[in-house]
Amino acid sequence: MPFQPIEMSAWKRRSYFEHFLNTVPCGYSATTDLDITRLANALKTGGFKSYPALIHALCTIVNRHAAFRTAFGASGEPGIWDDMHPAYTIFSAKHETFSSIWTEYHADFTVFHERYLHDCGRFADIPELFPKPDTPENVFPISSLPWVPFTAFNLNVQSTSPYLLPIFTFGKFRKDGKAITVPLSSQVHHAVCDGYHLGQFLQDLQNHLNEPEHWL
What we know:
The protein has five helices and ten strands. By secondary structure, the chain is an alpha+beta fold. Strand 5 and strand 6 (97-102) form a beta hairpin. This enzyme is an effector of chloramphenicol resistance in bacteria. It holds the Pfam family CAT.
């Protein structure tokens, strides 16, 4: 999980980073509908669950884009993680509470799916916010609102220490004829992620979802 500090004097993004971190500190969010028709059909055939598939897809594409792996290190310096793992929410119907747990990412989806099932089985009904210990530093948050077919979603993150990593939220699946879509809200910090970066990320994610036969 090496963290590579950024050499600020040579970083072409330095002026943008400093402006949106200090002068006009801001993040932004965007919600898009992802077409998961082919993915849903492949999951049904393979007997896999949809939530871990979406989590795995997000993490796969996050690990391809440096802008989505940029964070502050332990000493406060900006840098880029070599790889990331997902920290995602799960719901306990028994307690009517949610928890955030993490699962180690693996490029092989079947391996990740088994790890997901193991972690959910162990921690799903523990009424604590963070029931799984030893969360690594290189995780990014994912949540789900499977009851709400939202068209926009925004988190108001208040912190004295800016949070640079992306935050993703899935909504309720929608069916329109044979097509199946899911809304995804992406919240990013403008200091490290412009609209171009988000656009490239979402296109890569959609392309990945369009080809489940290559990774399921």
